[in-house]
Amino acid sequence: MKMKTTFLLLLAALLLVGACATAQPNGQTRAIQNPNEGVQTQPGGQPPTQVVVEQPPGPQQPGQQPPAENTTAQQPGANPQVKEFTVVARRFSFDPAVIRVQQGDTVKITASSADVAHGLAIPDFNVNLRLEPGAQPQTATFVADKKGTFTFYCDVYCGAGHTEMKGQLIVE
């Protein structure tokens, strides 16, 4: 009986410590990750493209300041602009399937799912969104700092046509 009580107390303490480690002031939780894990540099030793993933705002406590807007630093270029796109994922396509921007533009993609769980991944720009049907749209903001045609795709298995669920980001 003493061993059972000790085990339950230890388990309760571990749960309490785990909950405290990830609690945020607004009541939400987050996974603690190593920010340097898997970081790669681009050719020439440049740091990777900065990506900001925005979450919808949660309820605020009385007297609490609203969160600051997420911004990204602009890469040098000729007349860079902010280009915003709304992407809808559905079995087995993205709408729009082609996104065209200029090098140096800040790209803001707001994506949602129309049917089942999907993902939207653009590995070359460190974008990876999880899209749940009926949930708030997810947003990624990044600078299109390299020219080329980049494939974006669903990285959450969504059925038989999953491997064909792709689109193109064209940076001119």
Description:
This protein is mainly beta and 172 residues long. The chain has a domain at 78-171: Sandwich (Immunoglobulin-like). Helix content is 12%, strand content 33%. It is built from one helix and ten strands. The chain has a five-stranded mixed sheet, with no helix packed on it. Strand 2 and strand 3 (93-95) form a beta hairpin. The longest helix has 21 residues, at 2-22. It is extended, with a radius of gyration of 20 Å. The relative contact order is 0.17. Mean pLDDT is 72; it is low at 19-76.
Q: Which helices and strands appear, and what pairs or packs with what?
A:
Blueprint: H1 2-22, E1 51-54, E2 82-90, E3 93-95, E4 98-101, E5 106-113, E6 118-122, E7 127-131, E8 138-143, E9 148-153, E10 166-171
Parallel strand pairs: 2-5, 4-10
Antiparallel strand pairs: 1-8, 2-3, 5-8, 6-7, 9-10
